[in-house]
Design goal:
With 413 residues, this protein is an alpha/beta fold. The chain has two domains: 10-251, 3-Layer(aba) Sandwich (Peroxisomal Thiolase, Chain A, domain 1), CATH 3.40.47; 262-411, Thiolase/Chalcone synthase (Peroxisomal Thiolase, Chain A, domain 1, 3-Layer(aba) Sandwich), CATH 3.40.47. It is built from 14 helices and 14 strands. The protein has helices at 25-34, 65-70, 73-89, 112-123, 136-140, 144-153, 168-181, 200-209, 246-251, 277-291, 309-323, 335-338, 345-353, 356-359, and strands at 10-18, 39-44, 48-53, 101-107, 159-163, 187-194, 237-245, 258-267, 300-302, 330-332, 361-362, 386-387, 393-400, 404-411. A ten-stranded mixed beta sheet has the order 5-4-6-7-1-8-14-13-9-10, sandwiched between helices.
């Protein structure tokens, strides 16, 4: 029986990740339940000593040294996550048609690292451009992270990156879902990656904005909802999924982590950086409508909250508007452990919560010593994990600059 594209069920069958506190789902989830932060001291030129979430994955597991040197950090992260996701999915990769695989990778920004590095290098030679690397162009084109995956894995289907600020992880997954439903691929490798800690510009800009976190204890620096929060911890990372149509996954007996049942992307159209709670609430409602469920059916909300005053308050205001009276809905935040992984935030934060489908536990938001009254909400899970019973639906928020909002709703299968 033919199923209309819009009704095709799309499921997550593989997960590959690197986070500042884990390089696979098991170690990452354990760190979240144990309260283990991945934020540490960091120093970068011109800015000096600061804090960051730094990944420690094996870059040579799937690439040669020459390939790592020629490519980018974002590309290396994407290759690692894509290979791990395919491996985790159990799919017969050797007999998978490479022309029917699509790669859709969300990024916050790309190319800044390489351009900064090249300018720094030619400065040593009085800005003589003959010393400019001939690798610069392929390193900085916007499709680079997804393209590096196709080169590494021999994928000949469509690939591109999606620039969606810090909503990019969710947006990458939504695009993968769309392309499966359109019949453009039979397997989508999708999600988000970030190399942001390797550009001094992002630290300098947040510092100028008064939004760069600082704390004598790095593990306590990222403090969403806390009255003493003082800004963002910039982090790197990546998380890519394999998505398949449900019937294909079921036919091969695949493990299914969850089904995408609701999604939405909208725009604030109000400010370059300040969030808009009305538009965020609207985005959540659109996703709920597409999922065909009501707010009181959501068991767990993964927040975007970045530990900035305006961001945290606006998001909680939006959630109050949508979930008011539904105190059974647990609400947590993953950035408190790993900092802001920018383009990877959406998928890394959702992934940290997916095991709740099996164990019924919401991991905590850590570092909340004194809850900001403007961020108070009955469902907040603070400082210690909470057993919340059977979890059927998880909602994941990811928002970004220029007013882009994204929401994903995942259902237990």
């Amino acid at each position: 029986m033919h199923v209309p594209p819009a009704q095709q069920r799309i499921v997550i069958t593989g997960i590959g990740l690197t986070a500042p506190n884990g390089n696979d789902l098991a170690s990452y989830r354990q760190a979240l339940l144990e309260g283990k932060s991945g934020v540490q001291p960091y120093e970068i030129r011109y800015v000096g000593k600061t804090l960051a979430g730094i990944c420690d994955y094996d870059a040579l597991r799937y690439q040669k040294r020459k390939e790592v040197r020629r490519g980018t950090r974002a590309g290396s992260v994407a290759v690692y996550c894509a290979q791990e996701a395919v491996k985790n999915s159990g799919i017969d990769w050797a007999n998978t048609d490479p022309a029917r695989v699509g790669v859709y990778v969300g990024v916050t920004e790309h190319g800044n690292v390489e351009t900064e590095n090249e300018i720094y290098e030619i400065k040593q030679f009085d800005y003589d451009t003959k010393y400019w690397s001939h690798h610069h162009n392929p390193r900085t084109v916007a499709n680079n992270p997804a393209g590096e995956v196709t080169l590494n894995m021999g994928i000949t289907g469509p690939h591109y990156t999606l620039g969606a600020a810090c909503a990019a992880g969710n947006v990458g997954v939504i695009e993968g879902m769309h392309m499966l439903r359109l019949g453009e691929c039979d397997l989508a490798i999708c999600g988000g990656v970030s190399e942001s800690i390797h550009t001094f510009g992002i630290f300098a800009s947040f510092h100028s904005q008064g939004a760069l976190a600082h704390h004598e204890d790095p593990a306590q620096a990222c403090r969403p909802f806390d009255v003493d929060r003082n800004g963002i911890v910039v982090s790197e990372g990546g998380c890519l999924y394999t998505l398949e149509r449900y019937e294909d996954a079921a036919a091969r007996g695949a493990r299914i982590y969850g089904e995408i049942v609701g999604y939405a992307i909208n725009s604030d159209a109000s400010d370059f950086v300040l969030p808009n709670s009305k538009r965020q609430a609207e985005c959540v409602r659109i996703a709920l409508k597409k999922a065909g469920i009501s707010a009181d059916e959501i068991d767990l909300v993964s927040t975007h909250a970045t530990a900035t005053s305006s961001g945290d308050i606006q998001e909680i205001t939006a959630l109050r508007e949508v979930f008011n009276g539904h105190s059974k809905t647990a609400i947590n935040n993953t950035k408190s452990f790993i900092g802001h992984t920018m383009g990877a935030a959406g998928t890394l934060e959702l992934t940290g919560n997916l095991p709740a489908f099996e164990d019924g536990i919401a991991h905590a938001t850590i570092n909340v010593d004194e809850l900001d009254p403007d961020c108070a909400h009955d469902g907040l899970v603070l400082n210690e994990p909470r057993e919340i019973g059977k979890v059927n639906y998880i909602l994941n928020n990811s928002f970004g600059m220029l007013g882009i909002n994204s929401v994903l709703i995942i259902k237990r299968v």
